[in-house]
Every structure is written in structure tokens, then in C-alpha cells.
Design brief:
This protein has about 260 residues and is of the alpha/beta class. It has a single domain, classed as 3-Layer(aba) Sandwich (Rossmann fold). It is about 45% helix and about 15% strand. The protein is built from nine helices and seven strands. It has a seven-stranded parallel beta sheet, with helices on both faces. The chain starts with 9 loop residues before the first strand and ends with a helix.
């Protein structure tokens, strides 16, 4: 029987077929939450996450959604309410990045990154909050941002734009939605060992240069992020809103271009 700090809650976690999203979905399940697993292109990975979540004794559903499409974001919320009778927590985790010097960025690259990382989170949050408002329920929004909401990242200008945008959206919504009992915060991971960093982790010189910039001397894990997400989603974080929580081993305070 499931137990924990999120017992009886339902959470949507976007991009939860792998990486940080998967880690958060599974940690939420271990704390008693029913979870909506969102995937875009790997149903088998999403199904694996769903099965692992249900092993904790909760219910989990798998929903295909490309968050850059507003109809898909609305369906994610609709599925949560239809199959679980409500939703309490939204984790905007789905994200992409494109490497390109600023002078080489294409409109397609810009749209891909901004539509997923910023527009997707914006309108999914809107759909989530509209249902909460109708039901007169409180709720929690957690955006998985990045240290690059504040720290420069040469050759990733679109990514930085999207994360800087989500920082200000979070701050604005914390003020707008606070009177409704809805808390909004960001988690800003640094270098986390996930599939998006596979190439980096395989490049020993680049990896060693990065580790030299991290005071704690290691890359982070999905568990390092997921533990904080549980705190923010639970009553332990009940008086916390409008803040970014950096999870980077000290990277942001110590980083300098080589």
C-alpha cells in the first residue's frame, strides 16, 4: 500500500519517459502520488516508467503529448481529470536544446526550442490552472528550468532565451496565482547525468573540464532533482512560491569559460 508525503495526490510530469522527468515521476509515485506519464516519441520507455511507478502501489497512466502543441497540453490535463478525478501537481519538465552559434540559428531551431520549453510550459500551466480554478482547488506548479535561466551558455542562445523566459513566467504566476492557493517554483539543474548529456559524458576531456568547475566534483543525478521536487510538491514546501532552486553542485557560483 502506497504511503508518503504525496499520498492521495495526482501529478502530471511532462517528458517523464526518461531522465529527470522519469526520476521525478518515480519519486512522486514512491511518495504515494498517482502520476500521468507523458511521452513524445518513445512509448516503450513511457510504458517502462508507468510500470515502475505502479510497482509502488499507485496508479499511473501513459499519455502521448507533444507539449509544443496546445491541443496536446489540454489533453494531458483532461486525461488527469477524467481518469483520476483531478490533478494537484504539474511538473513542466519536457525540454529540448539546439546547438548553434547565434548567427547560425534558424527559425525552425528557434521555434522548436521556444515552443517546447516556454510556450508548452506556459499553456500547459494555463490549462492546469483553469481546471483548478473551476474546482476551487489549490495546486502546485514546478518548472524544471536550468542554471541557464541565469548563466550564459554560448552557442545555446535559444535554450537560454527559453529558460530566462520561464524564470520570469514563474515569478509572475507566483504573484498572480498565489491568491488562488497555487504555488509556482522553478528547479534549475546544472549538469545532470541523463540521456541529453550522453555525448558529454563520453567525451573525457570535456567531462573533466566540466567537473573541474563543479565544487562538489561530480555530475548530479535525477534523484538529486527529484528529492527537491517532492519537497516543493508537498506540504513541506507549503509556504514556498516564486523561487528558483539551483541544483548544480555549486557550478553556477564557480563557472568560467575555458
Amino acid at each position: 500500500m502506497a504511503s508518503g508525503r504525496l499520498l492521495g495526490k495526482t501529478a502530471i510530469v511532462t517528458g517523464s519517459a526518461s531522465g529527470i522527468g522519469q526520476g521525478i515521476a518515480l519519486r512522486f509515485a514512491s511518495e504515494g502520488a498517482n502520476v500521468v506519464i507523458d511521452f513524445r516519441s518513445h512509448p516503450e520507455a513511457g510504458e517502462e516508467t508507468r510500470a515502475k511507478a505502479e510497482a509502488f502501489g499507485v496508479k499511473a497512466i501513459l499519455v502521448h503529448a507533444d507539449v509544443s502543441k496546445i491541443s496536446d497540453t489540454q489533453n494531458l490535463v483532461e486525461q488527469a481529470w477524467t481518469q483520476f478525478g483531478g490533478c494537484d501537481v504539474l511538473v513542466n519538465n519536457a525540454g529540448v536544446e539546439k546547438h548553434a552559434a547565434f548567427l547560425d540559428v534558424t527559425e525552425e531551431d528557434y521555434d522548436t526550442v521556444l515552443d517546447t520549453n516556454l510556450k508548452g510550459a506556459f499553456f500547459l500551466t494555463q490549462a492546469f490552472v483553469k481546471r483548478l480554478q473551476s474546482a476551487k482547488k489549490p495546486g502546485v506548479v514546478i518548472n524544471i528550468s536550468s542554471v541557464h535561466e541565469d548563466m550564459v551558455f554560448p552557442n545555446f542562445s535559444t535554450y537560454c532565451a527559453s529558460k530566462g523566459g520561464i524564470r520570469m513566467v514563474m515569478r509572475d504566476l507566483a504573484v498572480e496565482l498565489g491568491p488562488m492557493g497555487i504555488r509556482v517554483n522553478n528547479i534549475a539543474p546544472g549538469a545532470i547525468a541523463t540521456p541529453i548529456n550522453t555525448a558529454l559524458m563520453a567525451d573525457k576531456p570535456k567531462l573533466n573540464a566540466l567537473l573541474a568547475n563543479i565544487p562538489l566534483g561530480r555530475m548530479g543525478t535525477t534523484d538529486d532533482v527529484a528529492g527537491l521536487a517532492v519537497f516543493l510538491a508537498s506540504e513541506d514546501g507549503g509556504y514556498v512560491t516564486g523561487s528558483t532552486f539551483v541544483v548544480d553542485g555549486g557550478l553556477m557560483r564557480n563557472y568560467h569559460e575555458q
